[in-house]
Amino acid sequence: MNSFFEYFYYRVCNVFFKWDGVAGHRAILALTMIQTLGIVDLLLLIFSIFEGRAALFPYSKALGVSTIGMGFLLMIWNSRIYDGRYSEFDARWKDEPENRKLLKGILVLFVFFAPWIGMFLISKLK
């Protein structure tokens, strides 16, 4: 799984390389966003199935603050792991075949949008 997050960081960093350079701050934010939303989606799905969404309403402020805190901690964690490692990943994946690069790029886009779609679908559960 760590290899996937490294690849996600690398591909997003490629998109924003002109603005961020090798630091990849936007890539770290995007990675943190998908990790945080993925965890929140899973937790909301579990609670929605077993308890119902109405059971979460009294705790919505606390859950929001907890989510922000979790996102902040993940951002610090991702910064420590990935900050400045673009060159290492570029050396690993720069000669990747075009067809594999395209398929993995589609996977990266899917993973980027999946938590948002999941959040929307979970909100439609009764």
Question: Any overview of this molecule?
Answer:
This protein is mainly alpha-helical and 126 residues long. The chain has one domain (2-14, 23-123). It has helices at residues 2-15, 17-20, 25-50, 60-82, 86-93, 98-123. Helix 1 (2-15) packs across helix 3 (25-50) and helix 3 packs antiparallel against helix 4 (60-82). The chain is elongated and about 50 Å long. The mean pLDDT is 85.
Write the layout of secondary structure elements.
Blueprint: H1 2-15, H2 17-20, H3 25-50, H4 60-82, H5 86-93, H6 98-123
Features:
126 residues, mainly alpha, 80% helix
3D shape: elongated
* Strand content bin: under 5%
pLDDT averaged residue by residue:
85
Structural category is mainly alpha
Q: Which segments are poorly predicted (pLDDT under 50) over 5 or more consecutive residues?
A: none
Major beta-sheet overview: none
Total count of domains: 1
Total count of helical runs of at least 4 residues: 6
Helix content: over 70%
- Helix-strand string: HHHHHH
Distance linking N and C termini: 32 Å
* Strand runs, count: 0
Q: Any idea what the radius of gyration is?
A: 17 Å
Brief summary of the model shown:
By secondary structure, this protein is mainly alpha-helical.
